[in-house]
């Protein structure tokens, strides 16, 4: 069993389709994750900016399954297939700063829970604003601007995914011993 040295990024396995963003966050290294969340141990901060984005949420909604009216996150179907561009060190740093802004804004609303903060009817305006800023930053790394809508987001993601699959199929096969 792996244990985090500094922190753990978590992603909730289930979330309401009413939400605009996937419940995700960073906890201390000694935090105990329940069976209701996936964990990425010692993940770079910039990964939070991706998992907390509208782009990732739209992918999860399209690719992963549902249980009744809720989306069910899958690390195999959702995380492992999510197409990301090759990010420069500068872009990763920009995303890390954006992730910290999201966390700082959440902390400013203590003691509200993630469920309260991400209730679409009650989400604080400043939290919604930092998420929109994060979305614009990340999306500019994909197409140089914010996407117009979810359809455009999915079209780009599926094109990137298809290109990665094609590249994998074209790669020489390794011989097994």
Radius of gyration: 17 Å
Number of helices: 7
Fraction of helical residues: 40-55%
Q: Strand pairing plus helix content: what structural class? A: alpha+beta
What value does the average pLDDT take? 88
Number of strands: 6
The ordered string of helix (H) and strand (E) elements is EEEEHHEEHHHHH
Spatial strand order of the main sheet:
3-1-4
Most strands sheet? 3 strands, antiparallel
Oligomer: single chain
Which overall shape is indicated by the principal axes computed on the Cα atoms? globular
Low-confidence stretches: none
Number of domains: 1
Beta-strand percent range: 5-15%
Termini, distance in Å? 28 Å
Present the secondary structure layout:
Blueprint: E1 7-12, E2 14-16, E3 24-28, E4 37-41, H1 46-51, H2 54-63, E5 66-67, E6 70-72, H3 75-79, H4 89-107, H5 114-117, H6 125-143, H7 150-170
Antiparallel strand pairs: 1-3, 1-4, 2-6, 5-6
Helix pairs in contact: 2-7, 4-6
């Amino acid at each position: 069993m792996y244990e985090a040295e500094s922190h753990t990024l978590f992603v909730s396995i289930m979330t309401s389709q009413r939400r605009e963003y996937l419940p995700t966050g960073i906890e201390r290294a000694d935090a105990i994750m329940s069976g209701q969340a996936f964990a990425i141990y010692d993940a770079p901060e910039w990964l939070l900016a991706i998992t907390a984005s509208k782009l990732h949420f739209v992918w999860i909604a399209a690719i992963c399954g549902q249980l009744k009216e809720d989306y069910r996150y899958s690390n195999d179907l959702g995380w492992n297939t999510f197409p990301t561009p090759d990010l420069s060190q500068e872009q990763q740093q920009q995303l890390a700063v954006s992730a910290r802004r999201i966390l700082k804004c959440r902390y400013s609303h203590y003691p509200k829970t993630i469920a309260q903060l991400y209730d679409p009817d009650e989400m604080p305006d400043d939290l919604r604003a930092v998420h929109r800023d994060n979305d614009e930053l990340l999306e500019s790394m994909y197409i140089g601007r914010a996407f117009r809508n979810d359809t455009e987001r999915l079209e780009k993601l599926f094109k990137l995914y298809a290109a990665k699959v094609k590249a994998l199929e074209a790669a020489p096969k390794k011989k097994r011993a």
